[in-house]
Amino acid sequence: MSDPELLTVQADSADSSLGWATLGERRWRCTIGAGGAREDKVEGDAATPVGTFPLRRIYFRNDRLVLPTVQLPARPISEHDGWCDDPRSPSYNRLVRIPNEWSHEEMWRADGLYDLVVVVGYNDDPPEGEWGSAIFLHIARDDLSPTQGCVALSRDDLLELVPLLTPRTALRVLGLSAAEGTSASDKDDEDMKQFEDFDDKDW
Fold first, then answer.
1. What is the DSSP string of 17-76?
2. What is the distance between the alpha carbons of residues 183 and 119, in angstroms, rounded to a whole number?
3. pTM for this one?
4. 35 within some domain
5. How many separate domains does the chain show?
6. pLDDT single digits (tens) 110-123
7. Is 1 domain-assigned?
8. I want to staple 59 with a disulfide (CB 3.0 to 4.6 A). Which of 117, 141, 178, 179 is the partner?
């Protein structure tokens, strides 16, 4: 069983954005960024950052869904909400009011992807350089196509997940894919088998 306070995300393979998000004994299909999972993420690379990050708060469209009881801070999204993705701005990687002079994403989207959003505490304490912004858990497209760097789950799965998140829950994005992890494990098993077969007379 995985850590009940660690939401672990791992891609199926190095060339796939599809993966699994696991929390305790539960897991859900998910998708990550088109740029893969990277430790050296930068703004605009469509990669999901590797590492362990806190979960800050929830934003949701109260005209489109009923938010279940949650433990993270939550508030509805308004039509004037945006998220700054311009590294030159003093509001970089922050919620901003739009219209805004700096480059930003609109939180009030027609496609429904941001009907439910969990803000990931990546590059926000404080925001620095061009290491990336607007990393969220959000609703995936129907075909689970890659994101621009976020982690996305189906609408129903995300609605099932958010009540389980607490202020102590962290998101861990793994750099090794499940396939690579399996290969490494298999190699370890082979190494151990060779060690077991070792005889003193071979020394």
1. -EEEEEETTEEEEEE-BTT-EETT--TTS-PEEPEEEEEEEEEE-TTT-PPPP-SS-EEE
2. 33
3. 0.88
4. yes
5. 1
6. 999 999 999 999 99
7. no
8. 117
